[in-house]
Amino acid sequence: MTTHTSGSGPRRRTLLAATALAASGVGAAQPRAVAAPAARRVRLTLPVPSGPYPVGTVSHRLVDHGRPDPWVASRPSRELMVSVRYPARDVGRYPRAAQMSPGEAAGFDRLNNFGDVPRGSVDWAATRTFAHQGAPPARARRGAADPVVHPVVLYSPGVGDPRSLGTTLTDELASRGYVVICVDHTYDASAVEFPDGRVETSRLPEEYERAEREGTVVELLRKTCAVRVADLRFVLDRLEAIVPTPLAPSAIGAFGQSAGGFAALQAMHDDRRIAAAANLDGLLAYVQEDHDPGPLSTVAADGVDRPVLLMGKDGNDHHTVPSWGALWEHGSGPRLDLTLLGSGHATYTDATSMLPRIAARLGLPKEMVTGAIGTVAPERAVAVQRAYVSAFFDRELRHRDDDGLLDGPSARYPEVRFVD
């Protein structure tokens, strides 16, 4: 279930291990502790969504009073922050939302998966999304009395990542008419800022260090995924309260990158409310290497009877990743396995557009970029993800297949290989 960072040697570090190293300052190729003056910090932009709708966003603090926090025993209830992206109108009067709040940006600067980016060299709080804060939702068609019905899709990020690191794809889906709920997994994400200004940082580095000492890494991987699945299911329980009126939820999907993709599929296995799920290069076993065979999750061991999209980095498919192979063998629902040629593990995050610009500005080695996002051209990687993830949810949640993109190879996207 773990994600990976680039690393030297024949075995790549798992993300939990890399997170622990980053927290201690060990293993980074560049000094992480010296902050550049604010005026010289790198500032970043994100790709503009391509759909017909402008995008709005609101954030919510959710409290699960029936579940003590699994990471911090002193917390009697589990608290989450979620951002809702949705098709909007009249956005010109509303500011574009920041990708990260100041507290989240500071936490991401201290502990992130871009291991060779010097601490203090990027102004993470300066990046603006194309979602407008508090913009009114799209209206029903003129004369229609019923609410506007839109599919809802949950998004779960990779281990250690904030919900905002999937902004390119979540804003894109909202621009195409989806309501997207982006979930921060508190004490897993690098930093989560709550409305009162409190910032909760990741507990995973210390959890991983203890698990390594005690020989309980597999148990930690199980717990990490189980907490994420419980978070997603709780968000589903609160759906009616957090989807903006008059946008009425219709079918529900889920997707995520790395451990978020694992959580999306496992949540679908455990909860019949989820009709389809997409896994962007996430393992489905409690292992530390992609090609290790087990122990399997129940979604891999049992399969599912609803549609699944597996979209892997170059070299990862259901023939090479044992947990994907198990899902393929045991599932009875529609299954689609796509490989983005030249991609890396972090291609399925905003790293695709961020890392090349950071490296160019800071003079970082090309290998740092390709180790994370591969060799595929960033603009092509973004285009592929937008096209295929949208097409998958269009077909499975909207029952619409306008151009047959999922039927086989396309001359428009020669980078995509269909895996039989």
Automatic annotation (TrEMBL):
Keyword tRNA processing: no
UniProt-listed PROSITE patterns: TAT
InterPro entries: TAT_signal
Extent of the signal sequence: 1-28
Pfam families: PAF-AH_p_II
KW Lipid metabolism (keyword) present: yes
UniProt keyword annotations, A-Z: Hydrolase, Lipid degradation, Lipid metabolism, Signal
Superkingdom classification of source: Bacteria
Name under which the protein is recorded: Lipase
